[in-house]
Amino acid sequence: MTGSRATESPVMATDRAGASSPGPSGAAGADQVAADLVTEVETSHGPARLTRRDADDARAVLLLGHGAGGGITAPDLVAATGVAVAGGFTVVRVEQPYRVAGRRAPAPAGQLDAAWLAVVEHLRRTTALPLLFGGRSSGARVACRNATAGGAVGVLCLAFPVHPPGRPEKDRLHELAAPTVPVLVVQGERDPFGRPDPAPGREVVLLRGDHSLKSDVHGLREAVATWLEHLPLA
Predict the structure, then answer these.
(1) Is beta strand 155-158 parallel, antiparallel or unpaired with respect to 131-136?
(2) What domains does the chain contain, in order, with CATH numbers?
(3) Nearest alpha-carbon partner for 116 in 91, 88, 144
């Protein structure tokens, strides 16, 4: 049985990624501190934590998952959150149950997927807006694997890990190819986890830098904002 807990805590967000820099649409401070609403949702593997930032007159909701060893304050997730909210997308950053429980070692893929879909089920009960899935690294894999089952209208992949470093024969391109909706991949040119090629329905934007995507936050904002602006939501 899944369901949200009764307590919701509005907090002031303290994450930033170049907050004083103008976004691609010319709006300064796309990542400035704003009020977030934090909720815990029960899943079959423990509670997941949702950090929601609402957009004015939101057109859709973007769910973002974190990487295997990191959290939701990763610079690329913070930057994507800022431009998405500025562009009319409510953003929900999802912390997987293993992170909420204080464990750093990631859970198996099946558990990650089950928790993600429990969050999706919760959001479907609370909003009629279209849902987009996304995340960085491991979170991008989760988003791709569950795009069809969760009814996503688009998938945003930040630093998709095509293969383990130095192991190109162990690629995960089948996961990246799974969504049947538009996909944007934003990847560092020197990412040791590899670089995917563009494909029908899949746009790939290469930025200077590595897997962290810290080197070109402005380019990341621009790529995400442009893709979201032209994404069909129907």
Answers:
(1) parallel
(2) 3-230 (3.40.50.1820)
(3) 144
Residue 74: φ, ψ to 5°: -55, 140
- Would you state the structure tokens that stand for residue 126, as one six-digit string? 């609370």
E strands present in the chain? 3-12, 35-43, 46-53, 60-65, 89-95, 131-136, 155-158, 183-188, 202-207
Give the sign of the dihedral formed by CA 10, CA 68, CA 139, CA 113: negative
With residue 99 as reference, give the H or E element that holds it: helix 97-100
For residue range 123-154, what is the model confidence (pLDDT) as tens digits?
999 999 999 999 999 999 999 999 999 999 99
Q: How far lies 220's CA from each of 74, 127, 132, 172, in Å?
A: 13, 28, 18, 23
Would you call 83 exposed, middle or buried from its count of C-beta atoms within 10 A (0-12, 13-18, 19+)?
Answer: buried
What is this structure's pTM? Answer: 0.87
